[in-house]
Amino acid sequence: MTTTASTTKVGIADIAKGLVDMAPSVPLILKHVPGLIHRPADAKRTIGHVFQKEAAAHPDRPFVRFEGRSTTYGEANRTVNRYASTLSDLGVGEGDVVAILAKNSATDLLLMLATVKLGAVAGMVNYNQRGKVIEHSMTLLGAKVLVWDPDTAEAFDSIPQDALPQHVFDFDSFIEASAGRSEANPAITATLPASTKAFYIFTSGTTGLPKASVMSHNRWLASMSGIGGMAVRLRHSDTLYVPLPLYHNNALSVSLSSVLAAGACIAIGKQFSASKFWDDVILNRATAFCYIGELCRYLLAQPAKPTDRTHSVRLIVGNGMRPEIWDEFAQRFGIERIVEFYGASELNLAFVNAFGVKRTAGFCPLPYKVVQYDDETGEAKRNAKGRLEESPKGTPGLLIAQISDRVPVDGYTDSSATEKKIIRDAFADGDAWFNSGDLVREQGFKHIAFVDRLGDTFRWKGENVATTEVEGALDGHDCVEQSVVYGVAIPDTDGKAGMAAVKLRDGASFDPAGVAAHLYDTLPAYAVPLFIRIVDELETTSTFKSRKVELREEGYSSTGDDPLYVLAGRAAGYVDDYDDYVADVTNARAPRG
């Protein structure tokens, strides 16, 4: 963290100012307070139920806007019900999985709503996955139906035939199959408890393959009350623009729940483009948008132009806004309020900047601790009595969240993977806490600042990257004998970029173009390492982990005589390291493509 971030403290004056700013939104806040205080798992309230209630109350309001075209709540609900009827006739019911492989569109969103209205689970597949990774994801889902977007043909074509479900549709064939079907709300929607699973969101794990984290309707409703109703506080006349993929919780949970909390409109960007971002915001008449930190950095790196200020955006919601660009971003683009939050797909709580304090990941009223941790393993450290100890106030520590009946963990589809994230008997016999895997710093009044990510994953471009997945891809190239992958900090960027230490096979030479092409074919673009260091040996003894720590500390600036290559982009591949490369990454000039 920067000095600015580390010295930020939240005081009573910050809270008082935030309360004054909240005053105009009191009716909306009061509407959602009950959802924070009491949210029983057996309540007959779900995402589909909330959506169809808004559609009944305000059928003529715009609900979703895509590429400038608006669809009203009433029209959207009728389409959703036709889709649900089609899925139901295919045998989809409560607990079944519908896999959705799509780039952002209105159809993508409406398919998800149709699925959850039936009590089924929407498996939101990351369209960047390929080959063995997407095969693993499809196998994990065990879907009854797959609906895919023709724009994701490359990903779809890489799924082996035997990993496909019984029923497979592309968008056009599914829409055609849904024509003329019933537009009535499915009867089952009104009977579903809030504890029902809503969707699976894929997140990288330390196994090297994605894990599917579970989002229940109840947890989504918590986002609607806590983030949407209490912090974002949209007006029903607002439009929230979503340039992030709908397989992300930022889009599917935070953004959609904020929209439905107010009966507002969600505008969907097909995919993020820094050069065309504000044009799309203006086309879709957006007054707010969701972000990740990298998106904001890319926008700042663009040349100044009139659209920087000719839009109508007054607030933004997201995570990863670097403290050092917070004020610059707000001033350049005329943003009145930045609603930063901290959370994770599998975590059972979230922090949100409800009081509008600068340079904080926000506030959380639920029970959590910031504890001491082991530098090498990234695990919580136990004292001589076998208990955890809190980190001194203001110093970085590992964030853990208490698990209880009030704050349960949805976890992953794999119960053993969930159990690995749970710390038991932490402070007392029988207690249970969820390990976030993240370092944070307490700022006062139950606010935190995000510091870093621990363990065998790192975060880059808003995505969690599993080092073992990248190592597996590298080791699959003919010239590579073994690799070690780790994250390295890049000045003024969110997260950490990938770096690999590579030992070549005997007699082999490094193939810069071939390795890059192989990695782009095997990994999502965000997971391709920016730096490759060629080393003579990699330790494989019991001290291997400490060597990995050492490599991480040396980074790209202390590689000695080892050859160092940097990623120029998809077309150019890896090239010899050059002096301005890090600056090019900081300013979004590299890698290209």
Automatic annotation (TrEMBL):
Source organism of this protein record: Gordonia asplenii
Keyword Ligase assigned to the entry: answer is yes
Output the GO biological process annotations, alphabetical, semicolon-separated: long-chain fatty acid import into cell
**Domain AMP-binding enzyme C-terminal: start-end pairs:** 469-545
This protein's UniProt keywords: ATP-binding, Ligase, Nucleotide-binding
Q: Which domain of life does this protein belong to?
A: Bacteria
Q: Name one GO molecular function term.
A: long-chain fatty acid transmembrane transporter activity
Lineage, opening ranks? Bacteria, Bacillati, Actinomycetota, Actinomycetes, Mycobacteriales
Could you tell me which PANTHER family the record lists for this protein? FATTY ACID TRANSPORT PROTEIN 3, ISOFORM A, LONG-CHAIN FATTY ACID TRANSPORT PROTEIN
Name of this chain's protein: Long-chain-acyl-CoA synthetase
Q: List the GO cellular component terms.
A: plasma membrane
Every AMP-dependent synthetase/ligase domain range: 51-387
Stretch forming the signal peptide: none
Q: What protein family does this chain belong to? A: Belongs to the ATP-dependent AMP-binding enzyme family.
Any Pfam family matching the protein: AMP-binding_C
